[in-house]
Amino acid sequence: MFKDKAIIIPIQIAMLYLIYLAGKGIQNLFDLFIPGSVIGLLILFTLLSLKLVPEWILQQGVSFMVRHLPFFFIPATVGIISYAYVFKGKGMLLIVIGLFSTALVMALAGRVTQWMVKRREEA
């Protein structure tokens, strides 16, 4: 198939985007309260679990996006500056809560990942 990463990665990212759009479409069609991105994630999980879409078809695009993940958070971080007034008064409490919840998510994600890797090695 294609050997050039400059062609493969955009195609794979476009495939992921189409899955997202399918989830968004399902959300709009059935007027669901679940976000379209979550529905798209469930569609992707189902496709990969049932091996309807082999992992290698999306692997390079996913790796590219994960490698550049911090860049996706820059707009949200810059957007917080517009709401600096929210942090007045109890702002320090919000910062502590944000740092604690971030650390908790990182720790839980690490534990789950370690558990899954250990389980895969045992199998």
Automatic annotation (TrEMBL):
<keyword id="KW-1133">Transmembrane helix</keyword>
<feature type="transmembrane region" description="Helical">
    <location>
        <begin position="7"/>
        <end position="26"/>
    </location>
</feature>
<feature type="transmembrane region" description="Helical">
    <location>
        <begin position="65"/>
        <end position="86"/>
    </location>
</feature>
<dbReference type="InterPro" id="IPR005538">
    <property type="entry name" value="LrgA/CidA"/>
</dbReference>
<keyword id="KW-0472">Membrane</keyword>
<keyword id="KW-0812">Transmembrane</keyword>
<feature type="transmembrane region" description="Helical">
    <location>
        <begin position="32"/>
        <end position="53"/>
    </location>
</feature>
<dbReference type="GO" id="GO:0005886">
    <property type="term" value="C:plasma membrane"/>
</dbReference>
<keyword id="KW-1003">Cell membrane</keyword>
<dbReference type="Pfam" id="PF03788">
    <property type="entry name" value="LrgA"/>
</dbReference>
<protein>
    <submittedName>
        <fullName>Holin-like protein</fullName>
    </submittedName>
</protein>
<feature type="transmembrane region" description="Helical">
    <location>
        <begin position="92"/>
        <end position="110"/>
    </location>
</feature>
